[in-house]
Write a structure and sequence with these properties.
115 residues; mainly beta; 6-stranded antiparallel sheet; 0% helix
Length: 115
């Protein structure tokens, strides 16, 4: 069973940066995409950023120009660089991987953004 382990800073201040990582426990066969969702209090889970195995990226409008997703296929790892943080970025962030019509999820990490 593939496991996704998230790591990286979890406390941010407005205007500052955080970088999160998500490593798969093994190579994910037929991996189509990896990325991040987030869920803020009282809101639905939303896609933050995704990257395909070929390197194509997709971002939520709210993070375009501020967040950057990247991946290292050799390390089975995806990264999320979060710059110019805003209080509205406060949420629980979940890493995911999609392969063979299956979603795999990380454990989720609370990322508060507050001065």
């Amino acid at each position: 069973q593939v496991q996704l382990v998230e790591s990286g800073g979890g406390l941010g201040k407005p205007g500052e940066s955080l970088r999160r990582s998500c490593a798969a426990s093994e190579r994910i066969v037929n991996n189509k995409a990896m990325g991040w969702y987030r869920q803020a209090p009282g809101k639905e889970r939303e896609l933050v950023a995704a990257i395909t195995s070929a390197g194509s990226t997709n971002y939520a409008d709210s993070v375009k120009g501020r967040f950057t997703i990247s991946r290292d296929n050799a390390k089975n790892t995806v990264y999320l660089q979060m710059n110019s943080l805003k209080p509205e970025d406060t949420a629980v962030y979940y890493c995911y991987a999609y392969a063979s019509r299956t979603h795999y999820w990380g454990q989720g990490t609370q990322v508060p953004v507050s001065s």
